[in-house]
C-alpha cells in the first residue's frame, strides 16, 4: 500500500470530515430519501432523485476518506528544520517578473488548499522548489509559459 505524507493538522481535518459525513450527513440524507419516497411516484420525484444523487456523493466521499486515512503517513513538521525546501516547509518566493511575493506551505496532496496557500508536493511549483535553498531561482511551467521564482525564505513551523 502506498503511503501519503500528511501533516497532523491535515489528518485531523480528514478525520473530522469523515466523522461529520458518517454522523450528520449520512443519517440526514437517509431521512430525506425516506421523506421523498413517501411522496409517491418515484419516477417523477425530483426530491427523491436529488437526495439519491447526494447520497451517492456522500457515500463516495466516505469511501475515499476511508481509504486515504489509513494510508496516510503523518510527518511532524515541528521537528523539521533547515534551509532546504521539503515537505512541510513554508516557502516565500518572489516572482522575478512582477516582484510579487507569495508564501506557500508544501503539504500532501489530500490537504492542499489554495485558500490557505497550501500547495501539494505534486504540484509543478512544489516540484520545482523541492530540494532548493534560499537564493535559488526556479523555473515553473505554467499554461501561460514558464515563470521564474526566487526563494527568499524557508521556514518550518
From TrEMBL:
InterPro entries: GreA/GreB_C_sf (IPR036953), TF_GreA/GreB_CS (IPR018151), Tscrpt_elong_fac_GreA (IPR006359), Tscrpt_elong_fac_GreA/B (IPR028624), Tscrpt_elong_fac_GreA/B_C (IPR001437), Tscrpt_elong_fac_GreA/B_fam (IPR023459), Tscrpt_elong_fac_GreA/B_N (IPR022691), Tscrpt_elong_fac_GreA/B_N_sf (IPR036805). Keywords: DNA-binding, Elongation factor, Protein biosynthesis, Transcription, Transcription regulation. Transmembrane segments: none annotated. One of its GO terms (molecular function) is translation elongation factor activity. Residues 82-155 form the Transcription elongation factor GreA/GreB C-terminal domain. The keyword Ion transport does not apply. GO terms for biological process: DNA-templated transcription elongation; regulation of DNA-templated transcription elongation. The keyword Zinc-finger does not apply. Residues 5-74 form the Transcription elongation factor GreA/GreB N-terminal domain. Necessary for efficient RNA polymerase transcription elongation past template-encoded arresting sites. The arresting sites in DNA have the property of trapping a certain fraction of elongating RNA polymerases that pass through, resulting in locked ternary complexes. Cleavage of the nascent transcript by cleavage factors such as GreA or GreB allows the resumption of elongation from the new 3'terminus. GreA releases sequences of 2 to 3 nucleotides. Belongs to the GreA/GreB family. PANTHER family: TRANSCRIPTION ELONGATION FACTOR GREA (PTHR30437:SF4). This is Transcription elongation factor GreA. The lineage of its organism: Bacteria, Pseudomonadati, Pseudomonadota, Alphaproteobacteria, Acetobacterales. The gene is greA.
Amino acid at each position: 500500500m502506498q503511503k501519503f505524507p500528511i501533516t497532523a493538522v491535515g489528518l485531523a481535518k480528514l478525520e473530522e470530515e469523515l466523522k461529520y459525513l458518517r454522523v450528520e450527513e449520512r443519517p440526514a440524507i437517509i431521512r430525506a430519501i425516506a421523506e421523498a419516497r413517501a411522496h409517491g411516484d418515484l419516477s417523477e420525484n425530483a426530491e427523491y432523485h436529488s437526495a439519491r444523487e447526494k447520497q451517492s456523493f456522500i457515500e463516495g466521499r466516505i469511501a475515499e476518506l476511508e481509504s486515504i486515512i489509513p494510508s496516510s503517513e503523518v510527518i511532524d513538521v515541528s521537528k523539521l528544520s533547515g534551509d532546504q525546501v521539503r515537505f512541510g516547509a513554508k516557502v516565500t518566493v518572489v516572482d522575478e517578473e512582477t516582484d510579487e511575493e507569495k508564501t506557500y506551505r508544501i503539504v500532501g496532496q489530500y490537504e492542499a488548499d489554495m485558500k490557505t496557500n497550501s500547495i501539494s508536493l505534486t504540484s509543478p511549483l512544489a516540484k520545482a522548489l523541492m530540494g532548493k535553498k534560499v537564493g535559488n531561482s526556479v523555473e515553473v511551467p505554467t499554461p501561460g509559459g514558464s515563470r521564474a521564482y526566487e526563494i527568499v525564505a524557508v521556514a518550518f513551523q
